[in-house]
Structure formats: C-alpha cells, structure tokens
Amino acid sequence: MWTCPECKAQFVTRNLWHSCVRMTSDEWLKSKPTRGVELYKHFLNEYRKIGPITLHTVKSRIAFMVQIRFSGVNKIKEDFIEGAFLLPENIDDQRFFRVEFIPPIYFVHRFRLHDKSEIDDSFRKYMKMAYEMGERKHLKKQVKH
Predict the structure, then answer these.
(1) How far apart are CA 8 and CA 142, in angstroms?
(2) Which helix (H) or strand (E) holds 16?
(3) Of 4, 31, 58, 69, which one's alpha carbon is 20 to 30 angstroms from that of 11?
(4) Closest C-alpha among 69, 62, 66, 103 to residue 86
(5) 126: number of Cβ within 10 Å
C-alpha cells in the first residue's frame, strides 16, 4: 500500500489520482436531506453485511473501499441517492443509467436509489460483485486462467 504524503490516504499503487480534501462522513452528510441520508445509511448498512469497508470521504462523495474503491455515493437528494459500482463487466440492467468503461478492465455502473426496497437480491448481487472488485478478487481470477 502507498500512503499519500499530503492527506495520508492509502492506495494500492503509488501516486494514484485522488483528492486530498478529506472530511468526515458526518461532515459530508450534515447538509444533506434527512430522507436521503436515511437511504444512504441503509445502503451502507447493506454493504456492511457483506464485509468490512473503509469510508473514503472527500468533497464530492463518500467512496467505499476494501483494498481499492469499489462503490460509493456522490449525490444525496430528498427523494434519491446516486452512486456507482465498479464491476468487471458491462451489465445491461435498467437500474444503471450510465456505464463508463475505464481501460483496461473496469466498468463504472451509475445508479439512483429512490427507496430501500430497491435493494433486493438482484441489487445485492451487484453489490457483492463490486465488493469483490474492492478486494481485488478479479485480479486473482485472471492469474488462474
């Protein structure tokens, strides 16, 4: 792990792009709408059922991290939260309003959640896939081939 000398954030590779503007998650959530914060906390708690995570909070988002950042929330409104998953493949699902390819092997799937009930078994499957990306399991699978 590499530690940024400015902000002390840890990353798997040296000089990885990031924001050194750090804040606590409580500071980031302070000005957000109550219902949106409740939905965010539900999403976070669902992730904590999968495994331990570290919160990496900067000015524009709260990222979820194991070894690498794999998910997070970048927008909290009264009627929805907006976030993303880092996945190993492009998944065609109407829950994702945008998918971005980051070479050589990453796909960022952007979603909006309007209600806790949207975190169903299918959505949890994507959460688990993203968590495994955070653990870098996709790299271990590539080596086995």
Answers:
(1) 30
(2) none
(3) 31
(4) 69
(5) 19
Domain containing residue 31: 21-144
DSSP letter at 116 equals: G
Contact 135/67 with Cβ under 8 angstroms? yes
* In the chain, % of residues over pLDDT 70: 85
Both tokens assigned to 121: 């078994």
Query: What is the total count of domains within the chain?
Result: 1
How many residues are listed for the chain in this entry? 145
- Say if residues 103 and 25 touch (Cβ distance below 8 Å): no
> Both tokens of residue 15?
């000089």
pTM of the model: 0.83
Q: Is 78 in a helix, a strand, or coil?
A: coil
User: Looking at this protein, which amino acid is placed at residue 109?
Assistant: H
Tokens 């965010």 sit on residue: 40
Q: How far is CA 112 from the centre of its chain?
A: 13
Q: Residue 92: which CATH number? A: 3.30.1460
For 115-140, the pLDDT digits (tens) are: 999 999 999 999 999 999 999 876 65
Contact, 96 vs 109, CB < 8 A? yes
* CA 24 to the chain's CA centroid: 16
